[in-house]
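agent> fetching stored inputs for the C2E docking request
agent> found them:
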Amino acid sequence: METSWSLHLLSEILSAFSTDDPDNLRNAVNRVTEAVDAEVGAIFDRDGITCCIGLSPREGARLVELADARPAEVQIRSGTLHTCWATIGKEQLVVGRLGDPFDVEERSLLRAMARSIELSIGLLRAISAERHARDEAHHDATHDALTGLPNRRLVLEGLNQALAREPQGQMQQVVLFIDIDRFKIVNDAHGHAAGDQLLINVARMLRESVRESDLVGRLSGDEFIVISQTATVGAATDLAQRIIEAIRRPIVVAGTELSHSASIGIAFGETGQEAHALLENADIAMYQAKSRGRGHWAIFQESMRAEARERLYLEGELRHAIENGEIESFYQPIYRLSDRSLVGFEALARWRHRQLGLLPPSAFIPQAEASEVIVHIDLEVLNQAAGAMARWQRIDGLADLRLSSNLSARTLNEARLQQRIAGILDSSELAPGSLYLEITETMLVDDIQSTTATINGLRDLGVRLAIDDFGTGYSSLLYLKRFPVGVLKIDHSFVDGLVTNPEDEMIAGAIISLAKALGLEVVAEGVETEDQRRIVARLGSDFGQGYLFGRPQGQKETLRLIEDYASSRRHHSHA
Ligand code: C2E
Ligand code: CA
Ligand code: CA
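agent> prediction call returned; pasting tokens
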């Protein structure tokens, strides 16, 4: 009885020390005083009373003063207080009563309690230190170190719990899958520190955009998640739109203003659904949003799943395609309009699929551009074409032939692009001056800082740039002066309208004369008819490319075209 009572007391005292609640400690001191039949009890150290029962503050303060002397009796207002002292670590424990002095048994009981309290405190500290370490380890394992947000594990845990709960009224779980557009490009161009800064910033903006009760997490890299409850689809899309706008606000990183966009996939959960299935739906919707351009959201629909599967299949196949040598460069000739002489070729990718046959770029370039695959394709096409062009240039009279090859935005932002292109030029023995890399104007305008560095690197190699699809983007011609651009390719949509639409003729005319004023050469794309050829020539375009002159063809057919051209030329000059 005695023992169990002490154990009970001890556990109460322990719990008092395990919390910071002063009432708990008070309760513990109460129990100690009860155990030895005292009316007064106090715990204190040199700095003062920690807890005191049955004494006025002034009387308590007097006890603190007397602690060194440890008198057996202390006079207080209500009479003579018999005391009993014990030590708990750096603190003193004192109990007192007005009746009989404490006997030997009571004194040893108090000391025993004090000693066990002391041991227990040590034990408690050790336990709490361990618990703290464990909590920290758990925190580390469930949170992302960079942003401090819950990681995939915790997100899945939280989402599973949320999905297991019965929904309240009209409320429905909604998952927003947020992906920063072109994050890898920022990271490569501005460095990882800038990338980290951006991610931290996005994490902050996400937290600020949602309600307290919503869960914000980071799944990996540049993928974030928001889990919320909404009653309507509109509330969910409003949230998505708010987030898109918040992320779009420019931030300054290392003195450079960066602005970003994010694509968001939205998926609504059903009670009992698996968390990872819901995440996958949101991911699929995000992909759909991305394909609509940057800074959009999309809501998951079942039909997207089939598309996603197809896309994954093609993407897997596509990696294969490069390894298996199924990516092939075709060549479309470009002619000088004034004398119909052959100027060069544009290299255009084709995929010779085992089952599906020859696939045009529209069947695989968009997929490839969603991943790093495009970089391999661009460099593969360039590599094949550079080798072929170097050989063609050795044919008598064709040393000046030019090669045009396309680069996508991802490739332009590829780290070490300069070195890789230098390597291709070296091994193919193609003179850098005969290579034109075609990029779109949008690629120049976006991310000027990083693009400028890359482009200057390419200029140092001696390579030239051509602006592709000119007129469809939003750059100004004057802007082009900043870059080593040699050629402007007028988009075929302008050429299409030339014969029927006088306005197109005016625009094309203005573009061409401005380009000429800037010292640029102009290629008219998509010239299909003799009428179109005549008009673009009259407007001042130097070169023409299109079905009228020749379709893109494989290497063998192209060699035949070249040989025919060379021999007709020789024939011509002999005549
Ligand atoms: P692009 O760079 O504007 O290439 C010109 C496209 O116009 C080619 O389509 C060509 O076949 C087509 N074309 C040429 N003359 C005419 C014509 O008279 N009428 C019409 N209607 N079309 C004509 P293609 O080969 O299907 O390539 C489509 C696009 O795919 C290219 O447009 C380019 O943006 C992209 N692409 C092709 N190869 C590559 C590559 O290796 N890398 C990258 N990143 N993109 C590529
Ligand atoms: Ca092109
Ligand atoms: Ca083009």
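agent> quick read of the result: The first strand starts at residue 40 and ends at 45.
agent> awaiting further instructions
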